[in-house]
Each structure stands twice: as C-alpha cells, then as structure tokens.
Amino acid sequence: MTTTYNSGVRVKGNKLREICNLGYVITVLVFLISLSSCRGSKAGSSYDCVNTDHSFHTTIEHGGVTREYILYIPSSYDNSIPSPLVINFHGYGGCAMNHLDYAGDLNSIADNENFIIAYPQAVATTKDDVSWNPEDNGIQNIQENDVYFTEQLISAISSDYAVDSSRIYSVGYSNGGMMSYGLACSRPDMIAAIGIMSGIMLPQACNTNEYTSVIHFHGIDDNELPYDGNQDYQSISEVLDFWLDQNNIPESSLVSTQLNNSDVQRDEYTGGLENTSVVLYTINNEYGEPGGHVWFQDQIDGDSPNQLLWDFLSNYSL
After folding, report:
1. CATH number of the domain located at residue range(s) 13-313 in this protein
2. Residue 199 and residue 285: Cα distance in Å, rounded?
C-alpha cells in the first residue's frame, strides 16, 4: 500500500523553533528555503483540490480571516446528547477532502460510535505547499497560528452542534501527527488524548502539569519519518520515552504483544498520572510489504487500525 497524495515531510524541529522566534516575515522566508529541500508530491496541495466540491465542506471566519474544513456528522448524531469530537489533521501538502477518503473506515466507525469528525485544511506556506505548524506562537490569528485556529475551530463546531468538551481528541497523519503532538503539549487542557499515524513529535516545551495519553502507529520502513530517526527527526523510541516521562508512566509497565503473525507488535505502557497510557503499534508488514509512510488500513487481529484508534481514544476524557 502506498501513499496516494502527500509525502508528509515537515521542516526539522530545531529549525522550526528558530523560525518561531524570529517573527512572521522571517518565518515565511525560512520556510521557503527549508521546505524546498523536503518537498514531496504536490498532488495533494490545497491548490490541487477544491474542498468546496465536498458536500461536508464548511468554513470558519475569525478576525476577518476565513479558513476551511470538512465536517462529518455521524448518522447516529442526536443533538440532545453531547458527542465526542475527533479532529483529524492531514499530512504535509495535503487536502482535507482527500484526507477524509485516505483515512479509510473512520467515518463508518463514527456512525457506529457516534462521534463527530473535523478534517481541517492547512494553509500554504508557499504558493504550492501547505503544512501545519505545531507550536503555539502566541499570535491570535487563525491564519498565522494553527493552535489558535484549532481552538477557534472547536469553539465554532461546539456552537453549532452538541459537543462533549471533555472528549475532544486530536489525530493526524505525518505532519498532521506533528500537529497532534503539538496540541498535546500546548493545549492538554483541551485535548483528552491523541492518535498518530506515521507521524513524529518535533522538539518543543510541553505543559508539565498536564498529562495526555498517546496511541501511535508507525512502520519500520517509513522512508519519510524513519522509525529509528535521522539527523532531522527523533526516533519513535525517543518520542515514547518523552511521553513516558511526561505522564510519569513506569517503563516496567510495558506489555508487548505480537499480532498478525508478528507482522505487528503492540507495546503498551500503563499506570501514568491521571490514568494515562502510551501505546505503540509497530507495523513490520502490511499487505505483504514492510510498513511504510501511510495511514494504515490492514486489519490487526480482526480490527481495523481506525477501530483500534477509536477504542483507545474513547477511554479518555478530561
């Protein structure tokens, strides 16, 4: 199985921290330089798709700025019963309406489990490239601060639909996974748990007084965000170690399970503060090929990865 519409590559963590400290004008200039060295396919950029063509397309306007997203309301929705909300961030160069299809059976699970899904659209850093900036730069502008945009997005959806504010979750693919990790760091008071598909965490300071449970799926042959890391990105083990420390989860709690005839390994750490846990699914093989840089679809011991994702998230509330 291969990625069909984006590469998910994002500017390196240390460079991102430098960028955020230099101001908006320099940010744009450095992004142009940094992204040119890691640009993937442009086939999924927001300039190659028209989200307005999707029947679930909607917009948010704040401070004279308009941004768009796809909103999926489950068939089981009842406005008298507050529903959980899942925010699903696409990858680098991605498109919200394509990502809705790329995420597989997640909408069907939402129908069965009664949760709302928002698929937000990132904005372009250059004429052709769109990406998420996972750090809160403090700017109260939805165009210039993706964390602030997410806050306003939640507020807008909650004003129109019955949303359970204690059960808001962030998930994401690749650069969208970086965004979810960023929200877990900067807004753990707003996000109950996060789920990552082929993403990574960029180094950043986190709120040390709040704790967030994490589920992460990653392939051993990810050629964009390598499982063992590289000069630009942390390894998966380094990210897990960070969250074990952040949540005060003992390493001795580890339970490892081989699934799909050892094509998948599940590592679960439990017993953290506020009952937090961290779960990693290492995808050794999917559909007969080494686990790559994708939103995983193949069943794992009878359940889709999306079902496993939701089963994990739904255990947690603020």
Report:
1. 3.40.50.1820
2. 17
